[in-house]
Amino acid sequence: MSKKKKGSEPGRKKSGVTSIVMRVFERNPDSELTHKQVSYLIDAKDPASRQLVFDCLNQLATKGALKRVNHYTFKLSSQENLVEGRIEITQRGAAFVVVEGREKDIYIAPQNVGQALNGDIVKVRVFKQGPTRDEGTVFEIKERERFQFVGTIKITDKFAILVPDNNRTGTEIYISKENLMGAKPGEKVLAKITVWPKSSGVPYGEVIAVLGMPGSNDTEMLSILYNQGINPIFPPAVLEEAEFVPIDLDPKEIANRRDFREILTFTIDPFDAKDFDDAISYKVLENGNLEVGVHIADVSHYVRPGTAMDAEAVLRSNSVYLVDRVIPMLPEQLSNIACSLRPHEDKYSFSAVFEMDENGKIYNEWFGKTVIHSDRRFTYEEAQEILEGQSGDYEEELRKLDKIAKILRKSRLKKGALNIESEEMRFKLNEKGLPNEVVIKTSKDAHKLIEEFMLLANRHVATFLSKTEKGRDPFPMIYRVHDAPDPAKMEVFAVFIEKFGHKIDLHDPSKIAEKLNELFQELKEENEFSLIQSMAIRSMAKASYETENIGHYGLAFHHYTHFTSPIRRYADLVVHRILQEELTTKKHRYGNELNDICKRISRNERKAAEAERESTKYFMTLFVSEHIGEVFDGTISGIADHGMFVRMDENHCEGMVPMMEIPGDRFYFDQEKFRIIGSKTKREYNFGDRVKVRISEVSLRKRQIDLELVV
């Protein structure tokens, strides 16, 4: 008797045949096929295989994916059984389709993805339903996410091929030599799909921009941007509009605004910031209370609906911050000059002004258009030194604002907000733009001061715009929402932290934030703190923009929006327009299209975040490429079926030890207990274990650091 081949169990075999059978019908949508014809088409020759095909056909007919013509003949069901959603393709070629209003995502096996590309809107036929996910096949591509892709040119005798930088977000493209735009073998280019015949597995296209040879920072950063569909170049019409934006303020416009120019006002920003979109004013009132103004750059005064600048801003949705450059949402004439609240210049702003006492209790609030004059530009470092006791400009005012910010923060946490300590990897670059030092930036009191007053303004604007009036229909509004955690993901997180010797009870949804905060406080000085905190964040729902308000779980706010950064976020610009309409005419221009705007800006926010991560990974590999062969202490930061991730202590960079390269045994991933274990020795590797690793190889192209264990 021959041994059973791995993977030939009946359940798995049937699942595989089901996918293949569905593909036959998708390729022949108008045909009526017998089980013998299907068996012939998929090369099922022996009786057992033909029986398996017949069983699959019956099962698909029962589930409605196929229609039974007679006992042995079947055809594809009508389009009424199709669902529509956005496809997300994994690194390994499989995909998931997210359907709005549907609890379960639909899994698409690699062979059933067809010509769909990551982000496309597709119609899917579901042919298998399961307890946690359904399975289907792509029937039709309704809308392409994009047609342009980045890759490296490979030239053969007859034609050229674009080899994509990222198989998840790109595809190979055949390009005739006449359409290369002078690109040479090995160069990175931006190419556009021009045609994709149904009979072809690969599209045809043309080069539209040559980016350069791989390895230079400019080439790699441009590749990252274009790969996410982010264009670093503004169209001529947008630049032309920006050039005509006046820098000087109009006296007539000033007369229509509340004037804060004589009131102490300052900004606190990173040392390298150029787009100052928020400022704080401070005034002691006659009754002893304080008047604190949160002043935001009045972008809506300059960027009007229907203009080229507005169309481009919604297309971009946000500014993108890479390690060595910023791709602004608005041209620099606006973002860095006209709108930016630069020191010692009069500027238009849109303000939220609060009368409060020194304990943060609010007595009155006011929203409206203003004109301000920033008296001082602080860097976070300068403000922090004053808060820590050094003498400096406006030290009394800064310390009183810091006291109020701490009270506001304490109140927020008491109401159930998550206490997340932000941590950001930054690189110090030399004159050639190469990284020579890794710095971990943590949030200090100066950051938290600004954060609390921005949160205050955002929350109060959202609350004001959410008030319902008798006899008046509510108007469309953009909210920044954050859903409560998924209990299943929280269970996985609880298992994860057990590896560090910590137990946490997350069964009561109302106490999850409280329990997490207790855990974070307990671990604050421990090595694994940032690792556990980042894993907790990944276990949470992602914040997004919606027209339906469900509140913000992480901040413990019932109403929340984005009002404070219109230079770099389109959502804030829209909220400014809605607020001004409500303060004046009470007639609102936005209708159902606000839903589409929310979807677009949420999607583009994710693309920007992915580009920023890719940029960091590139500079990480660039930094450690000078240290190949060196040994570092580290912590296991991730475990997967293909190996373990280790974050090195000294440089904070993360690399992978491939499973096959772990010495001393044949190791495998124990998914149930989230560990790597040796088959013979039973030696375990767990999250948080301390290890020594050697940097063995670095790939700038893959943004990948390969490590080997030193035992």
Main features:
OB fold (Dihydrolipoamide Acetyltransferase, E2P), about 700 residues, alpha+beta, 6 domains, disordered N terminus, about 30% strand, Arc Repressor Mutant, subunit A, about 30% helix, single chain, 17 helices, 7-stranded mixed beta sheet
Give a quick rundown of the structure.
The protein is α+β, with helices and mostly antiparallel strands.
Give a structural overview.
The protein has six domains: 10-76, Arc Repressor Mutant, subunit A, CATH 1.10.10.10; 79-143, OB fold (Dihydrolipoamide Acetyltransferase, E2P) (Beta Barrel); 148-214, OB fold (Dihydrolipoamide Acetyltransferase, E2P) (Beta Barrel), CATH 2.40.50.700; 237-481 and 548-610, no CATH class; 487-540, no CATH class; 628-709, OB fold (Dihydrolipoamide Acetyltransferase, E2P) (Beta Barrel). The two termini are 44 Å apart. It is built from 17 helices and 34 strands. Residues 1-12 have low confidence and may be disordered. Helices cover 30% and strands 28% of the residues. The chain has 711 residues and is an alpha+beta fold. Strands 14-21-20-17-16-15-22 form a seven-stranded mixed beta sheet. Strands 4-5-6-8-7 form a five-stranded mixed β-barrel.
Q: Return the structural class.
A: alpha+beta
Q: How many DSSP-defined strands? A: 34
Outline type:
globular
Biggest sheet descriptor: 7 strands, mixed
Report the total helices. Answer: 17
User: Level of helix content?
Assistant: 25-40%
* Mean pLDDT metric: 90
User: Which stretches are low in confidence, meaning pLDDT under 50 for 5 or more residues running?
Assistant: 1-12
Q: What is the radius of gyration computed over CA atoms, rounded to a whole number of angstroms?
A: 29 Å
Tally of structural domains: 6
Proportion of beta-strand residues: 25-35%
**Terminal CA distance:** 44 Å
Strand arrangement across the biggest beta sheet: 14-21-20-17-16-15-22
